[in-house]
Specification:
Length: 231
């Protein structure tokens, strides 16, 4: 009658290893819940029966009946589902962690392209050594060189975000670049994408001033550009 959570995983998927750590933490908080790891490719009949098409996938069982499902590496949602089905109120620590996860999720989705860096694009605060620019400064220069439209967050302005994002993204260093809420990588990966030409297809482009002006003057049949407003 107790809750059973089955994680369909694969050893080659790093996000599965990350979610196994989340499950281990949940197992300590919810001793009445049974957590099971099942290698999806090792049991193809079971995976097919339950429609497992990607990993990680989580199935929730009660009284031998499937009651819920979660596709993807979404730690906050997994925590919420375990708490709801287990009928346990979240502990203060779990609640605080959940709030941080929600906040980080909002931050990485705050703009189509988000750069988490040391300092700001105009004033990077990364350490520079002879013959080498700081990593954050290099990242900004690459994005500007490719006319990428991006927003940024100074990790020095919030220690909770600075430490929490490392776990959230499973990426220990900065800068970190996100597109549509998904981590693209750090400086080395961005350099590889630039060299291969993929960067221009992944990141959104800033609108040129000429195109922006054309869009504005054609916004309505008659457009008035004035000081102040009609009222």
């Amino acid at each position: 009658r107790s809750l059973v959570v089955v994680h369909f995983w694969a050893p080659w998927a790093p996000q599965c290893a990350q979610m196994n750590e989340v499950m281990a933490a949940l197992a300590q908080e919810h001793s009445q819940v049974t957590f099971v790891q099942l290698e999806a490719e090792a049991v193809p009949e079971v995976s097919e029966k339950y429609g497992i098409s990607s990993v990680p996938t989580f199935l929730f069982f009660k009284d031998c009946q499937k009651v819920d499902r979660l596709d993807g590496a979404h730690a906050p949602e997994l925590t919420q589902k375990v708490q709801r089905h287990a009928g346990a109120a979240p502990s203060p620590a779990a609640s605080a962690q959940q709030q941080l996860q929600t906040r980080l999720s909002k931050l990485v989705n705050a703009a189509p392209c988000m750069l988490f860096m040391k300092g700001s694009p105009k004033e990077p605060r990364c350490v520079e050594i002879p013959f080498f620019l700081g990593f954050s400064k290099q990242m900004v220069e690459i994005l500007n060189r490719h006319n990428v439209a991006f927003s940024s967050f100074d990790i020095f302005s919030d220690e909770e975000v600075r430490q929490g994002l490392k776990t959230f993204s499973n990426w220990p260093t900065y800068p970190q670049l996100y597109v549509s809420g998904e981590l693209i990588g750090g400086l080395d990966i961005i350099k590889e994408l630039e060299a291969s030409g993929e960067l221009d297809t992944i990141c959104p482009k800033a609108q040129k001033l000429e195109d922006r002006l054309k869009s504005l003057i054609n916004k309505a049949p008659v457009m008035l550009f004035m000081k102040g407003n009609k009222q």
